[in-house]
Amino acid sequence: MHEGHQGITKTKAFLRSKIWFPGLNDSVDNAIKDCAACQSVTHTKKIELLRMSELPEKPWANLSADFCCPSPSGDLLFVITDEYSHCPVVEVIKSNSASTVIPVLDKVISTFGIPKVIKTDNSPLFNSHTFRQYTENTGFEHCHVTPLWRMPMPRPNHSTNQ
């Protein structure tokens, strides 16, 4: 019934038009999985397992930073998130230039200490010579990550206590 190597669905349909028996689906599935000719031309989609990021050893060692879309007034939200606690620091800024962002990072670093790593996307600011010099002078590693996969979202607080 599988002589033409037409696949599982067509083989089952052809068999059902001629005969039926208990376990037909499993028999066809197993026969086609064992068919060397079919397996040699079938592209199997390998699904890569999600890999969890390692939890940083302590708070404020690994940070993620990015900008949120502009507000109606044109201001930007610069969000720095601790990957250990998911605690965000949000600063309202006027532009995403190095002269605006670096003082904000200085303020956060002076409050929480120099991180080991700061992850950002590949925006022009984070690829600039000025930002690269800042990272070298401050002493943290700067990592670029894939856009939209860079920052853990803060966990919502559903507490009813005000």
From TrEMBL:
Q: What sequence ranges are listed for the domain Integrase catalytic?
A: 55-162
Name the Pfam families on file. Answer: Integrase_H2C2, rve
GO MF, one annotated term = nucleic acid binding
- Name the InterPro entries on file: Integrase_cat-core, Integrase_H2C2, Retrovirus_Pol_polyprotein, RNaseH-like_sf, RNaseH_sf
Please, which domain of life does this record's source organism belong to? Eukaryota
Q: Which GO terms describe its biological process?
A: DNA integration
Q: What is this protein called?
A: Integrase catalytic domain-containing protein
Source organism of this protein record: Mytilus coruscus (Sea mussel)
